[in-house]
Amino acid sequence: MSNLLDIQALSLGFRTEKGIAKVLDRIDISVKPGEIVGLVGESGCGKSTLARAILGTLPEGQTEINSGHIRLDGVDMLSGGKAAEHLRGRVVTFVPQDPFASFNPLFRIGTQIQDLMRFKAPRDGAGSFGRSRKADEASAIAMLDAVQLPQPKAILAKYPHQLSGGQRQRVMIAMALLPQPRMIIADEPTTALDVTVQAQILGLLRRLAVERGVSVLFTTHDLGAAWEICDRIVVMYAGQTAEIAPREQFFGDPRHPYTRMLLDSLPSPGRDPVGIPGGVPSPLKAPDGCRFNPRCPRATDICHESRPALTTGSDGHAVACHHPWLAKAEGAHV
Amino acid sequence: MSDSDNPAILEVDNLARHFPVRGFLNRQVGSLRALDNVSFAVEPGEILGIVGESGCGKSTLGKTLMGIHEPSEGEVRMLGERIASPGQKRAARIRARLQYVYQDPGASLDPRWTLRRSLHEPLIIHTDWPKEKREEKVREIVKAVGLPVEHLDLYPHEISGGQQRRVGLARILVLGPELVIFDEPTSGLDVSVQATVLRLFRDLKSEFDLTYLFISHDLAVVQSICDRVIVMYLGRIVEIGRTAEVFAAPRHPYTQALLSAAPVIGGPRVTENFSLQGEPPDPSNVPSGCRFRTRCQYATSECADIDPELDDEDGHGVACLRWRELSV
Questions:
Q1: Per DSSP, which regions of chain A are E strands?
Q2: Which of A65, A82, B181, B260 is most buried per CB count within 10 Å?
Q3: Which CATH class is domain A99-180?
Q4: Residue B2 — very low, low, confident or very high, per pLDDT cuts 50/70/90?
Q5: Which sequence spans correspond to the domains of chain B?
Q6: A269 and B261 in contact by Cβ < 8 A?
Q7: CATH topology of domain A1-34+45-91+232-334
Q8: Do the chains contact at A223 and B191, CB–CB below 8 Å?
């Protein structure tokens, strides 16, 4: 099956007063139709920038694209143009971290959904003039019902501040699904939510994506949430792809030293969390070679000189490291 | 309540905190019951965790203990001395012994003061030590939190966020407190940083003989660091006990749901059979009887009538009418 999203060797930076911040450095990621891919990394690793690059919403004047391409459904999203614009909001939609900031506080939920449908959603009701508002409302209600919001009709008449955080995120997911997209980019959609609400939202997102065959690119810094929902996991560190693996292999047999240290940092009873000394390098002066080398216990001279290529094994487990762990870890996480 | 011979360092008795809800012309139209009937004791040297979802009253509890809010009912005693009750003014010397750590302790540093001045300030307020003695103490604490002494001449913007956090902690420790209340100390941190922060907390605790009250919504962190844990729901304690016991065999239906909602790496996907629906009700309009009954799958008509008290068995208390029959 060909890839729905295909990103190859993407490097981009932002022009700042202090020079160019190289935020992404030759990123390779692909997403197959119907697949849920987790994009995991700590703050500052470039995962949100990548999500915005796919959507084509990076600040135009400041962004410098150095190499690579992003193809969504065969269309180049970086060059812009009508074709890319047509896909945005229709074929690929977005679920933000903070839904409150994405609603207009002055308009009712129903009005905002209707605006979205007028421009982006496919027509399914036959109206005398263009589309029918009644049919729009009916499909909006059906969708709010699908995201398990009680009394969807009453929700349409409410303002964003009248909903709770979990309800707002459900409405956001409904709005992301209404255009019948083939891909949803969810940027930390449960970070602001409580754990019981998170479980409900993650379950909903996974169920709807599987039922409708929608691909999801799910960025998160929460490894537990990634385990919960993803089929495949990509780890990024300081703008570089560190490791890509199917879920079980990722947690059971991590090969990149960074991935291993990240998993060892998770709190668990009876084990002292290890942590990673040092901090994420500034994109303004990123280290040469592998960007993890200043913090890596396995680093040697070659790690300072050349950037390890992402090499994929026969099992679909890819790692970019000169000295990957090969044997199964003692005390592995699965 | 306590099962050891040590006298409790902090005792909380029937504590309640209600906030008035104001309507037209500032008339009181209702009351938001953020805390109700909260009783527990903190033993010296332990780390007592307080978990619950947003709006359950855990931060209100921390602030009421600290004296930022005045209790509406009940009282708080520290080492046998009453430190908070309705209408009571708080003595300054209590504040030195009971310290409160905000989410980001570094954010409370004055950007125009050197770190030395920020660290001297609490000692100037609370002691009459000469300058040399203060400086000695400040240096000792700065070393203990893992910062070079040369940093004392720097301003907050010249050091990293992690170091600011350490200075914030140092500022709390110079007064030699006995009990430290942490309010969500690890939320918003990446796991690699969180691990180092947790280790620092643990090292400081053993070095300075501290007792911690650790408020968090992160179950994994609480499980890894706390000796005992309190689970709160809508202003009430629903379960209290040793961490290992509560996590291994939760007795209250809410605790069971809360624990089952947290993803376990390597475990089955919890989202596929997660049963708890909806979100907690509005705390200004709490359900009668057991506050969890509206979302509880085991609720009976009795639960609407009787507000369950904490039922303590072997130091593991639970506020549920039916926990005995459900645990069979």
A1: 5-16, 19-31, 36-40, 63-72, 75-76, 92-95, 183-187, 215-220, 232-237, 240-246, 311-312, 318-319
A2: B181
A3: alpha beta
A4: very low
A5: 10-106+176-327
A6: no
A7: Rossmann fold (3.40.50)
A8: yes
